[in-house]
Amino acid sequence: MKTTTHLALLAALAAGLQTATAGDITGTITLKGTPPPEKPITQLKDDVNCGKMHTEPVFTRFYVVGKAGELADVFVTLKGISGKSTGPSAPPLVIDQKGCEYVPYVAACQTGQKIVVKNSDPFLHNVHPTPVNTAGGNKESNMAQMAGGADLTFVFPAAENFLRFKCDVHPWMFSYVNVVDHPYFDVTGKDGKFTIKNVPPGKYTLVAMHRRAAPAPAGFEKEIEVTADGAKVDLVLDVK
Ligand SMILES: [Cu+2]
What we know:
The longest helix has 18 residues, at 2-19. The protein is 10% helix and 38% strand. It is globular, with a radius of gyration of 21 Å. The chain is mostly beta strands. It has helices at 2-19, 42-46; strands at residues 23-32, 75-79, 93-98, 101-103, 106-110, 115-119, 125-129, 143-145, 152-154, 160-166, 174-180, 185-187, 193-199, 202-209, 220-226, 231-232, 235-238. It folds into 2 domains: 1-81 and 190-240, Immunoglobulin-like; 83-183, Immunoglobulin-like.
């Protein structure tokens, strides 16, 4: 009888260990201070094709902030991890060109992961990534994409933060892709929230980077501990 109880306990423990080997890091990033007003993109409205795609003025997207300061487009990742990319088997990151804007404005993917760029507009764009980590093997390229043209695919072998995509036809069009060589990252949505999934328990340095909010470009660093239950980390970035 006693042995049976012990065995049942051991089985329960083993099952618990199996399901509790990794946790999620969740949190919200908020912005302190009032960001400068966004600027209207007058070139877009004046463009014969792009202007027709919008009934309202189109503004820059430097600070996308909610009512309670929730900050979007913050790249959140763990420092000091490398060479664990699962990019080649991950589903592609999809970027669209819609109304003469790149959507999303800020994204992230892994090294070796496909980045698929679509053109939803009824006219020509060209897709021109301009990586700076060329020593790591990231290559600049420039491809025209007609209306209804096939999707374009890009792959970057080296980590790089805020790798810029631009369109030479429409000089206001930019998108920034953070390329990471491990799967532990996210980009905050309009609610300022992020989730980094399945992180093995341990101590880490979490970094939150925004293109403009301080501390930019290095990002805000915080030492955290992830347990089997994960971790919760809320951070505040500053208007410069
Ligand atoms: Cu364009």
